[in-house]
Amino acid sequence: MSTATHEGDNRTHISLTINGLAVDVTAGMTLVEAAWHAGVPGITGVGCLEGVCGSCRVMLRRDKVVSVGLACQTFVESGIEVIFLPAASAPRHHYDINDFKDSWDIHARFHSIFPEASRCRHCHGCVGACPKDISVEDGVALAAQGRYREAGEAFFECVMCELCDVACPELIAPAHVGLFSRRITAHFHLRPPNLITRLEELRQKRVEMGEGERDED
Amino acid sequence: MRSGILLKQALESYRSDADVGPLPPPVDTDSLLNTFHPDHLRGSVVKLGVGVNAGDSCQRDLADLLQTEAYIDEADLAGTPVTDVDVLVIGGGGAGCAAALAAAEKGARVLLATKLRLGDSNTVMAEGGIQASIEPDDSVQKHIQDTLRGGHHAGNPSLVASMAEDGPDVLRWLIHLGMQFELTASGDLQTRRAGGMSASRLVYCRDYTGLEMMRVLREAVTQHRSIEVWEQSPAVELLSNEFGLKCVGAVLTSLIDGQMRIVRTRSVILATGGLGRLHLNGFATSNHLGATGDGLVLAYRIGAKLCELDSFQYHPTGLVYPSHLSGKLVTEGVRAAGALLLNANGNRFIDELQPRDIVCAAILRECQEGRGVRIDDERVGVWLDTPRLEQTQPGLLERQFPNLMSRTKGSGLDPRTQPLLVHPTLHYQNGGVIIDASGASTVPGLYAVGEVAGGIHGRNRIMGNALLEIICFGRRAGYAATAKRDRGPKKVTLEHINQLRRALTLAKMPMTRRAPQILPAYAKGGLWTR
Ligand SMILES: Cc1cc2nc3c(=O)[nH]c(=O)nc-3n(C[C@H](O)[C@H](O)[C@H](O)COP(=O)(O)OP(=O)(O)OC[C@H]3O[C@@H](n4cnc5c(N)ncnc54)[C@H](O)[C@@H]3O)c2cc1C
Ligand code: SF4
Ligand code: SF4
Ligand code: FES
């Protein structure tokens, strides 16, 4: 067992650029730490620092090869160019889950909200972009076939970075297709008997105590 | 160099099959806490000198922030663009989103302003689960009792009752919005029993409960027609009426271009979360970058009463290494699964499943008495013996703790073969703004919900009650804030700041520092050191 891994920060010098600024740091730092260390201004797309909030989106260029990732989970490397990406733009697909009264027409609704989803050209752009190794493309296909439960399951570890949305040439917004699939699965199908029983007990108790029904939503 | 056994040496003598010795006889927990828990560190608590809590105990670093100069004065308000809304929600975590959705449900035009991106929060990081009494052998009453006992009976019983009563309906509301939970084979909600619970009451979504909750709330908020969201827009001050007695809006700044904006409204709902990133008493933290206690500062200045300002939860097992994950949690589940805590001599020193404050104090005792594993002057900890766990239950770490495995992977650290070095980490603010059952603070027009509010968890929070609290009181405040239909403010002023300045001057307090903090110093574009 070596201590090197624990001691980690062997003080190797690393030079790279962040948002166009040349930066000198030591090995073992993440891109977020490097940006802070060098005082790169305006790095506010940072939240959890552990890979679950999806905010710290970066574009990386290594020897002309461009990729994307999460800055708090990516370590510095010599010679790479890093650009912190701005937050995603406003959503283009609109729906309100309260409008869904009937689960039988959900397929039609899905395709009217996400008309592009059936036009996937299987370019794998979304899969290559996803920092969480999600099978985004398959998930979109499942949703387009009306298999929302399975589609949603594919997106289980999605951290909402929306890098797949950026990568998609058909503007399908795969991240939101995934979230839609997960949400309607719960909305229509999650009816747990233990919860329903307790809710009814509490309702009856309120009626007995003369508090009446709740008017909240 | 301070005391302790150096890492290299400790690693060389570590064996995953070594005899760990018997558990030492239990010590008096009161004296353990009084001697070693950070809340009791000598010099870490002071008395507040100005404001509504003058004379009350307060953690020193926090007191410094509560009694400081503001960023802006009246001159800054002239010419600043004004936006009018029915309800202003400050903070885009779980509590803020719930409040915004509830207010919008009631027909209010809502503006939600948040410091970073919508959803960058402590909420998104929660792993364990959310409490609600839904099992046949459980009851609202038991939930109330457990919460009060867990908080050492310092919580407000009526707030606790509101929260416990709302529990089941909070789950229904979340499911309606599209949140998934773990189910049993028969379709019941799966529950778990965690520390301090007298029945199985924790519902969850694998070990990503907060992520599942946050992405559903975030989508619901961004999709809502009557909620406008301003990201990268921290609140730097609240606004009061001409007497400094009522909250009538807030001043927001853009992190992008520094532009200030005035928001004028009947009701402000503060939902700014916790303060881990203040690194109280020099501790690392499990919190997200924006957790700098801004809401406490803003509320205190406008005259809202706060409580339990000297009581914080330090989670026993924060990572010491790898450095970029310093302070990040190793979930309690790893200890629940059987992982032991060992000091540098390879001995057990505490029953690992004691309440958090006790395990935390025991680890600090080992470190202070020279039985810690030391990397350098600053970094010291004890072993969380994951290799032994792997040996006795092969494959368990990968199966049950994928989150931990994937986080350490990038650093060449494998918990299956190397023990993890852990140290207590600043995790949760037990107290906060005093509220009533509708989330209203002691200042008219100002509500506070979520981690920024106090009075529910007393002096210690049990697992799963924070996620319940944020939705329960978030909704309650959203409804209450909308029900108020007065004509709205005529004049927005900084009268409360003028009063604060007078008080600070009278008390001969320095006015050199400004608050709220907004971002930790190392993230402000300055030089960052570990
Ligand atoms: C790692 C971790 C694990 C946890 N696990 C659990 C668990 O299993 N179960 C449980 O019940 N609890 C858990 N907790 C606690 C729980 O997650 C939090 O207490 C809760 O989510 C807080 O919600 P909130 O909405 O009040 O605050 P947050 O979710 O932190 O949201 C606050 C928001 O306000 C914003 N903000 C801050 N200042 C300003 C400002 N000046 N202007 C505008 N916006 C501002 C922030 O950027 C953030 O978006 C955990 C906490 C952490 C850190
Ligand atoms: S599915 Fe899309 S939004 Fe989700 S983590 Fe992957 S790239 Fe990010
Ligand atoms: S990027 Fe878009 S078009 Fe390409 S595979 Fe993914 S979903 Fe299909
Ligand atoms: S900061 Fe949250 S994913 Fe990187």
What does this structure look like?
The complex is a heterodimer of chains A (217) and B (530). In chain A, strands 2-1-5-3-4 form a five-stranded mixed β-sheet, covered by helices on one side. In chain A, 35% of the residues lie in helices and 13% in strands. Chain A starts with a helix and ends in a 9-residue tail after the last helix. In chain A, strand 1 and strand 2 (21-26) form a beta hairpin. Chain A is α+β, with helices and mostly antiparallel strands. Chain A has two domains: 13-84, Beta-grasp domain (Ubiquitin-like (UB roll)); 97-189, Alpha-helical ferredoxin (Fumarate Reductase Iron-sulfur Protein, Chain B, domain 2). In chain A, helix 5 (136-144) packs antiparallel against helix 6 (148-154), helix 5 (136-144) crosses helix 8 and helix 6 (148-154) crosses helix 8. Chain B folds into two domains: 5-36 and 312-426, Succinate dehydrogenase/fumarate reductase flavoprotein, catalytic domain (Flavocytochrome C3, Chain A, domain 1, Alpha-Beta Complex); 74-311 and 430-497, FAD/NAD(P)-binding domain. Chain B starts with a strand and ends in a 24-residue tail after the last helix. In chain B, helix 5 links the parallel strand 5 (87-90) and strand 6 (110-113). Chain B is α/β, with parallel strands linked by helices and 530 residues long. Chain B is 31% helix and 16% strand. Residues 526-530 of chain B have low confidence and may be disordered. At the A-B interface, helix 1, helix 2, helix 8 and helix 9 of A face helix 1, helix 7 and helix 8 of B. The structure holds flavin-adenine dinucleotide, iron/sulfur cluster (SF4) (2 copies) and FE2/S2 (inorganic) cluster.
